Amino acid sequence: MAQWQDALGTEVEVILGGSLISGLFILEGADCIDVDVRFLTENPMSESLRSRIEQVTGLAFRKVIPVGDWPHGESQGVMIEGKLNHPELVLPLDVEGCLRNRAYVGWARFYRLVLTENELAEVRRRKLELRSDKKAYKAFKSETRSEVERRAIAGGLVK
User: Fold this and answer.
1) What is the pLDDT of residue 121?
2) pTM
3) Which of 7, 51, 106, 125 is the Cys-Cys partner for 56 at CB 3.0 to 4.6 Å?
4) Do 48 and 96 share a domain, yes or no?
């Protein structure tokens, strides 16, 4: 990510998101490591920027999706993804990137602040249990994120 940031300059802020930040990644039986990356910029719909990010990262355009903005509202995010090999890792990285505007909060960073160790362990257990059912897995992740979001807001952690 540091190399990507250096190559992309100040127009884009490259940040890690998702389960690696929350500590809720699971490797049991995995054939790759899931990595979420956010590319924050003033203009996420810029085709020239997307092209530059694709060239720098090796990721490829997948689709445009609606994304929630903080504190409310919605904008378009550009999904880019791909499998990348890293010489120091046995498993490949399955990278899902999203070009987003700077209203992105990154709720994953609040998981360890608002959930107890027992709750975090339960989330990991449920994710492993639901891994083979994509619809249930996504629903559980969404419910968990909503609860983390609610607690982070109620606790004054988001400004």
Assistant:
1) 93
2) 0.84
3) 7
4) yes
Same-domain pairing of 6 and 43: yes
Query: What is the domain extent for residue 121?
Result: 107-159
Other Cβ atoms less than 10 A from the Cβ of 107: the count is 21
Share of the chain above pLDDT 90, in %: 68
Whether 148 and 105 have beta carbons less than 8 Å apart is answered as no
The confidence score (pLDDT) of residue 3 equals 93
Number of domains in the chain: 2
CA dihedral 36, 39, 45, 48 (to 10 degrees): -120
Among left, alpha and beta (phi > 0; psi -120 to 50; other), residue 31 is: alpha
pLDDT digits (tens, 9 = 90+) for 19-74: 877 778 777 777 788 889 999 999 999 999 999 999 999 999 999 999 989 888 99
Residue 143 pLDDT more than 90?
yes
Residues 32 and 54 grouped into a single domain: yes
- How open is the CA angle 99-100-103, to the nearest 5 degrees? 160
User: Does 49 share its domain with 91?
Assistant: yes
**Contact criterion met (CB below 8 Å) for 41 and 69:** no
